[in-house]
Amino acid sequence: MLLFEGTSEEFVEYDQRDGLEELHVPRRRPDQVFGLARTPSLDLYARAEKLRGLRHSPFSNVELLYPFLICEAKSEGRGPGFESIETQTAFPIRTCLQLQDDLRQRSGVQLSPFVWFMAYQGDEWRVAGCLMHEGRYQIIDLWMGRTTSLDGALQLLLIIDSICEWARDVFRFEISSCLAGGKDNLRGISRRHGSPAVTYASRFSTQEPQYEGTTIISVHGDARPSSIPETDVDITDFAENASIASLTLEDSMMELDGITEDPSAACQDESVELYGDVVSHPLLKWVKISSTGVPWTAHATIRHSNMCLFAFSHLSLPEELDLLLACLRQASSWGVGSIRKIATSLVMSLTDHSFVRNTTMGSILQLRNDWLREDENTSVDSEYPLRALFVFRTYIRTSDWQIIRELLCISCTAQTAHNLAKIAGFSAESLRIRMQQSSNEHPLPISDFEALRGLTGSDAASAAISSKVLYHCLTPTREEAGGFSCSWESRLVSEDMKISFSMLAPSICFSLDRRTALMEVLKKPSPKNLRYHLGPDVAARKSAILLHKGNHWPRTTPSWCLMILDELELERSGELARRLSTQVSYHAFHFAPRSDEAGEPFSRTMDYSGDKEFLEFWAEDLRG
Hints:
Blueprint: E1 4-8, E2 32-37, H1 40-46, E3 64-74, H2 82-107, E4 114-121, E5 124-133, E6 136-146, H3 150-180, E7 197-202, E8 214-218, H4 249-252, H5 263-274, E9 300-304, E10 307-316, H6 321-333, H7 339-350, E11 357-360, H8 361-372, E12 385-396, E13 403-412, H9 414-424, H10 428-437, H11 446-453, H12 457-465, E14 469-476, E15 484-489, H13 495-501, E16 512-520, H14 528-531, E17 544-548, E18 560-564, H15 573-584, E19 589-591, E20 601-603, H16 612-623
Parallel strand pairs: 3-4, 7-8, 9-18, 10-13, 17-19
Antiparallel strand pairs: 1-2, 2-3, 4-5, 5-6, 10-16, 11-12, 12-13, 12-14, 14-15, 17-18, 19-20
Helix pairs in contact: 2-3, 7-9, 7-13, 15-16
């Protein structure tokens, strides 16, 4: 599907408020007008109740929204001159600017109306920018030149290329934001709580548009096509080769705080912000204690396995081909693989009947509400069908010993699957067979997700220490033909599945929506069939466990963590000291020096003798 639409010599319908027809101002027919095509997403936004009665196009019979480029051409011999060309095009330009300004006022979203105007007479070209300033309409000459010279022709091509990129990466996004009532309401656009959202990306340009309150990620590449590809275009030119990194879900997605030059500093800043509103919670007593008041907190901390940071990460792959390619290109630039390889892996994963679920966006949003205990309403517009994959992971964050429990989801529509197949080079028949084999609808069993959400005590600690990753699987039942049972499995998965979920790594895809919530989990027994997948019970029959950080952890992270596993309140310093002393009489767990967040313990025990004096001081200080 095209993102842009063009029309030739169509009458522009003036705004009735201007009374131009009563003044007998003749209607004009510009030679060429280009605007946004009525894609499904734009059509959905434009039909919103709050936009009822608003004009989106100056044409009555053309599916073209919000024109941004008007072109006029005159013959060289008897041409009227550029001043006359600008005069006859002034009212169409005014009408196009009014459409944008009316949208800005109705939506209440920031927008600076702008229209490009290109005129040429013979081999002489002129480019102008049309805008509104203090209620007045202005046309500003930007460039003039001749195409008979190599330099002039090259400059014109670069200008046209820049206009295409601006329209695709800036103008369309701003219009979509206005139609949707804000950037946060866009489908497939990421939103985070407590931090700026990664909301949009340019596929090719190194010049990123800046939007207040957002972080723009630009993807750099060598190929710079000046036109927008259609869905049936040969995608070979876009499938640039890149080295396929040996990415796994555990290795590629463990850093929650992104990639920074000083990751420990970034983690520290996030931790301060994260705990700001809940530091009074009794299970967070030792999180923000100043080392000046309690000296040992610079080297040790006390945590509770029932205090968990829940995260929900959802990658809704966009339907529009250019946005989908931008997402794949961005992942390729981070070393996930070539664009064709990533698309192939996504198709294979999203048509794997053992893992894929046929559900709706509304069900996924409701699952997010349940996971994070939010009460955000899911609109009727979200009840469109999707294919979805789910993965659960839990680990200990290296910056501050916080247990993270995250649910990850990749989803796409049938149209997105077809576009991915085109990029990957699948035949229509092979895709049809794979989609038919995985076409059964599967309601999301909330109990399956609640079981993982409700992990407490030693179950929570064991799974986090082991950096556990579980895949939500579908297994045919013998009792019922066509029936399926659902379960969480820690089995090895295909390389395609690993590559697919590596798309959810921070900064890899701009369509990622990630939200978090910190809260206490009330104690309840874990299902027996789930315990088998949580890894070895490293804290069996214990009320606390002593942990030592790995060699790869940030140096600012306290070296020691006493993890409480039962219902003990952390204000009871005397009991904490007793449990610490009990742990010291044994050995502590030690994390392997791997590059991910935690990894399984290097060994079940370690020699603590080098820190014996500090541990004794720590226990003595707790006793008071």
